[in-house]
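A.,

Following up on our hallway conversation. Structure tokens first:
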């Protein structure tokens, strides 16, 4: 009966292990404690079997088979204590080899040929004799020392807990549960056989059941383990591209998944420490983070989608995250805080760039008075900057800027073709990269705005049009200016036509008057002499001679009149020769003396029409001088200047007042002929001071000839 009862502690610990592995949320600390309980159960089974072993050889075989139990309890217990106390050394990559490797070597040496000296006790079965070997003594001492070290770790942790009374009680309870078996084992199974040379009392394994019981009670009563130490966290989250942090209710950082440690390398050095305030840009941001994230989550509330900017303590680029905080509950009570943050740094940067682009659009619009727009061909959405929209439509709500129907309503009825044109281009995939349209829109007051709209097509890597960015420029003022210029041009054209017609009529009147008053009278005189010759009774030779002389004079007058009508180019003369003949004829008539000057002028540079215009202007001004000036001397100058070609005709006649006589037919003809070649006319005259006419032609007339 006693032998069967000796298996009770082992069965109890096996039950605890089953509960831990199959009925508790898995985590690393629980797994370590479960392994410790299993090792303890193996040790207790060995003690129970020693009660029934018949011979020393059987006891040695059982010892070689089951000694792994009591040897493994020491490193497993110490590892559990370090994990439970949250020591960062437990996460070091050399920690596990440093703790387990010495005991593994000791175990190997222990079972390879070494035999512990046992004696049979009627009460305890086979027990270690005082004369046991060195290996057995060293292993027992090492197990006791490492177990006591685990006690020290847990007690130290209990003293460090300041503001969590339950966790402090829990730590002391667990420390007491392992302290008593550790002291008992040191006394009864190390000091008695090795130092005092007495038989051991194998009660350590049974006493360690107190430790198992203490941990189990703490697990149920004091929430022993942090959910943040879940064994599957690493396995589930190691490939998750989100930052996952677990913090204690008091703000201590307990866990960071691999991605968090990659994006925030300083996390590994902050485990077990409060979340540093320097992670946030300033004290106000840290206060807001505690008030809006940590405090509600610690109180059992979930916090969703909080934008937070993290600033690494050692400097470097800031990280923008979208944070979600959830309480970790156990039996309805918050045990920790789960922080899940999505790294949205790139998205925030893109949004900032988009905002800057939008601001640039608005600034460009303010500077250029253009309405900048952006048409996303994939979504169909259209953005028009608010400054440009308000400038065009004044009090129209900005929300209408992206409304296609509102745009259609404001488009001039005669310009709806632009909509059909754009839809046609969209169906064709916008074959051209640049689009330019002119159309009109209507304001609420009925006024018409003319727009010049230019757009540039953006394409993706495949060449598909995805966006069009453009600017609509208000060209209403330009259109009005063009209309006024067109009307002015039409008026000028009409004035030129009227002046030319009037000039032609005046020229016809002069020719008619010349034929009637001069040539006709001469021919009439010739006819009278011929009649006298025909009716004379005597010789008529004198009358005939007089008739012939008169007819010759008529022929000269006709020739002179024809010369004034024939252009220089048709008479085979150069411009200079034609002007000299024109001036010589006036001088020979005894009207006045003339002087012609040419300077720096190559006639080959002058267009033929310009030569004719110069000739006609000189001819017209000489006619004005003959009929009105009563001049004694006339000087004509034609030369090349830096600005173009200058023609000057100056006389010393009676002069006139330009303000009263500027609309004469002769002067109007001169101005009309000058305008045909983009020339300008200037008249300097005064009563009694003669007249100086200057006509200037620009260099462009010479370049056109070249």
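Then the amino acids I'd put at each of the 706 positions:
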């Amino acid at each position: 009966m006693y032998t069967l009862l000796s298996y009770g502690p082992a069965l109890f610990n096996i039950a605890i292990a089953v509960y831990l592995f199959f009925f508790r949320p898995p985590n690393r600390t629980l797994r370590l404690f479960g392994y410790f309980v299993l090792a303890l159960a193996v040790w207790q089974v060995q003690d129970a079997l020693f009660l029934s072993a018949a011979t020393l050889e059987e006891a040695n075989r059982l010892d070689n088979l089951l000694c792994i139990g009591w040897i493994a309890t020491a490193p497993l217990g110490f590892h559990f204590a370090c994990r439970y106390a949250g020591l960062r050394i437990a996460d070091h990559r050399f920690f596990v080899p440093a703790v387990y490797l010495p005991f593994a070597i000791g175990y190997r040496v222990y079972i390879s040929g070494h035999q512990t000296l046992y004696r049979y006790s009627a009460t305890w079965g086979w027990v270690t004799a005082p004369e046991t070997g060195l290996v057995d003594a060293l292993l027992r001492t090492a197990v006791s020392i490492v177990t006591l070290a685990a006690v020290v770790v847990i007690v130290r942790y209990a003293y460090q807990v300041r503001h969590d009374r339950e966790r402090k009680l829990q730590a002391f309870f667990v420390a007491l549960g392992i302290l008593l078996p550790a002291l008992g084992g040191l006394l009864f199974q190390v000091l008695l056989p090795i130092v005092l040379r007495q038989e051991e009392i194998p009660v350590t394994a049974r006493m360690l059941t107190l430790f198992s019981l203490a941990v189990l009670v703490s697990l149920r009563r004091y929430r022993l383990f942090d959910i943040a130490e879940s064994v599957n966290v690493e396995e589930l989250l190691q490939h998750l591209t989100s930052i996952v942090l677990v913090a204690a209710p008091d703000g201590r950082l307990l866990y960071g998944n691999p991605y968090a440690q990659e994006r925030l390398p300083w996390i590994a050095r902050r485990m077990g420490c409060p979340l540093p305030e320097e992670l946030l840009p300033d004290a106000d941001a840290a206060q807001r983070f505690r008030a809006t994230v940590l405090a509600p989550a610690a109180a059992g509330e979930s916090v969703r989608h909080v934008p937070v900017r993290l600033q690494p303590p050692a400097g470097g680029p800031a990280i923008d995250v979208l944070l979600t905080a959830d309480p970790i509950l156990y039996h309805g009570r918050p045990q920790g805080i789960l922080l899940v943050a999505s790294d949205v740094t790139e998205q925030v940067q893109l949004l900032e760039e988009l905002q800057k682009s939008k601001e640039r659009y608005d600034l460009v619009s303010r500077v250029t008075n253009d309405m900048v727009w952006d048409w996303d061909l994939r979504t169909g959405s259209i953005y028009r900057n608010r400054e440009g929209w308000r400038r065009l439509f004044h009090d129209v709500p900005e929300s209408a800027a992206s409304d296609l129907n509102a745009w259609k309503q404001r488009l001039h009825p005669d310009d709806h073709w632009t909509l059909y044109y754009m839809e046609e281009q969209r169906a064709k995939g916008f074959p051209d990269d640049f689009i330019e349209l002119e159309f009109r829109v209507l304001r609420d007051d009925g006024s018409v705005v003319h727009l010049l709209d230019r757009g540039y097509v953006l394409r993706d890597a495949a060449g598909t049009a995805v966006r069009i960015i453009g600017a609509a420029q208000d060209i209403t003022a330009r259109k009005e200016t063009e209309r006024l210029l067109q009307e002015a041009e039409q008026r000028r054209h009409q004035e030129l036509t009227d002046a030319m017609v009037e000039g032609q009529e005046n020229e016809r009147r002069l020719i008619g008057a010349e034929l009637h008053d001069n040539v006709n009278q001469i021919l009439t005189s010739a006819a009278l002499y011929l009649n006298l010759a025909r009716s004379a009774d005597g010789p008529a030779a004198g009358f005939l001679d007089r008739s012939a002389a008169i007819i010759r004079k008529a022929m000269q007058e006709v020739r002179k009149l024809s010369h004034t009508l024939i252009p220089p180019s048709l008479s085979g003369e150069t411009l200079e020769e034609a002007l000299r003949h024109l001036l010589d004829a006036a001088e020979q008539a005894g009207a006045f003396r003339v002087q012609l000057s040419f300077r720096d002028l190559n006639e080959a540079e002058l267009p033929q029409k310009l030569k004719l215009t110069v000739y006609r202007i000189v001819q017209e001004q000489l006619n004005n001088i003959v009929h009105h000036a009563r001049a004694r001397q006339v000087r004509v100058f034609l030369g090349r200047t830096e600005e173009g070609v200058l023609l000057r005709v100056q006389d010393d006649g009676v002069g006139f007042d330009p303000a009263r006589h500027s609309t004469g037919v002769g002067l109007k003809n001169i101005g009309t002929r000058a305008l045909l070649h983009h020339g300008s006319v200037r008249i300097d005259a005064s009563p009694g001071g003669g007249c100086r006419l200057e006509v200037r032609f620009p260099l462009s007339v010479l370049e056109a000839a070249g």
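The CA atoms of residues 482 and 488 lie 10 Å apart. Curious whether your intuition agrees with the design.

B.
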